[in-house]
Sequence to fold (76 residues):
Amino acid sequence: MTNITLSIEDKIYEKMRSYSEIKWSEFVRKSIKKRIEELEKLDSEEKESLISMLVSEISLKEAWDNEYDERWDEVL
Fold:
């Protein structure tokens, strides 16, 4: 496990000390892990959306792009 160092304002630190029953290191570890999972989910959803959009665009282009109906040539 890797160690990191955080800088915290003195006022915040004093307030943290008043809640000594809380394991602050564990709290921070879980908070970081949760945020990373949220970011990874967003990344995954963005990639899926982009792929979906591109596939839809290609499908529409193929469906509309035909030699019998030239009106669609300038749509995409």
User: Anything to note?
Assistant: The CA atoms of residues 13 and 33 lie 22 Å apart. The mean pLDDT is 81. Residues 24-64 form the longest helix (41 residues). Residues 24-72 form one domain.
